[in-house]
Amino acid sequence: MLLLSTPALAQDKTIIGPTAEMSVVETKFTYVARIDTGVVENSLHAVDFNVANGVDDMDANIGKMLSFTTENEKGVSHRVQAMIVEISLIRNAQGSENRYMVEPTVGEPDQEYKVKVNLRDRSKMSYKLLIGRNWLQGHYLVDVER
């Protein structure tokens, strides 16, 4: 029974490869995004943070406006303003860190969704936008051979 129901669920989802061109509507340009099913959250390259009336306690800044600069892999940059919706604790091989999260509209043309993304300096990374399971879930199946 499970085998019969799985293809029906898969038919409603778009197949996406390990990378995809994605827009972040608020930045007014596109990124070549890395699709990573191993991470839950999306991550966007961001530097030069400025929280309006901000304080040192990141949690106290939730609900405040944050401005930051982002840049895609082509070197096109844009200053963005967004409300801080959450603070995310990210753990990786380098340790753990708290990151601001905002909720932009992200996706491929005609398949754009509001989703939380954490903000991080990804300037040394090849991909300035990382797409995780919180954006993929319910909409996409990943085919790494694509």
From TrEMBL:
Domain (Retropepsin-like aspartic endopeptidase) ranges: 19-146
SUPFAM superfamilies documented for this protein: Acid proteases (SSF50630)
Taxonomic superkingdom: Bacteria
Coiled coil: none
PANTHER family, A to Z: ATP-DEPENDENT ZINC PROTEASE DOMAIN-CONTAINING PROTEIN-RELATED, ZN_PROTEASE DOMAIN-CONTAINING PROTEIN
UniProt name for this protein: Retropepsin-like aspartic endopeptidase domain-containing protein
Organism: Shewanella benthica KT99
